Amino acid sequence: MKSLGIIGGLGPMATAYLLQLIIEMTDAKTDQEHLDVIVFDRPSVPDRTSYILDPEKPSPLPSMQQTARTLEQLGAGCLCVPCVTSHYFYRELAGSVSIPFLNMLTETAQELKAAGRRKAGILATTGTVSTGLFQTALEACGLESAVPGSYGQNLVMSLIYDEIKAGRPADPEKFEAVSRELQLSGCDSLILGCTELSLIKKNTPLGHGYLDALEVLAKRCVQACGAPLKTEYSVLFT
Known about the structure:
The structure is a single chain. By secondary structure, this protein is α/β, with parallel strands linked by helices. It has eleven helices and seven strands. It has helices at 12-25, 48-53, 61-73, 90-95, 104-114, 126-131, 133-140, 150-164, 172-184, 195-203, 213-224; strands at residues 4-8, 37-41, 78-80, 119-123, 144-146, 189-192, 210-212. The strands form two sheets. It has a four-stranded parallel sheet with strand order 5-4-6-7, sandwiched between helices. Strand 1, helix 1 (12-25) and strand 2 (37-41) form a beta-alpha-beta unit. Helix 1 (12-25) crosses helix 10 (195-203) and helix 8 runs antiparallel to helix 9. The two termini are 30 Å apart.
């Protein structure tokens, strides 16, 4: 099996949860049947959304590239970064190493297509939404997409930054309000397209039709590194 390298800390709790998901999804009977994982936790990396919205702010790219190269040098055979917004820099990141670099957005779009979904609502940071990262990945798979209006997007950002990143519980009313907006626009599935939002699903039962991009990444990490996947994770939708 290949060793997995994780560019972590973006944010810290999401990184810890990804590692937990990888362990839970691996069909292992002994310690030795689990993946070797190298986590480089770097919460000091500048905020991705801040830079995307204002390029005068510090760029996170140099730190992420340095981390990717370090993980490769340490023996990682496959890389990932559990931060959706960081995929704005995916081409430069993947190009900085010579080993495979998993793309959360592409993998999530393919998971939706394989499940026969047609239109996905995107719950993500303003940086992710404004650059069309998920919209482009979904369109490449022949899928439609929708994003919240300005009020709904403000609710999403408040959930991510004012609550989850700040170490506070997410307000379920905010989450339900923006979910309802997207469902009423005809979405047959809703993407948890920020790894902080994945923590809502971890701690709170959700309704039907949600797909967690972090769970998709964990599943692909197990598969890409050659470990067996537990059958109950073959379908990830709520």
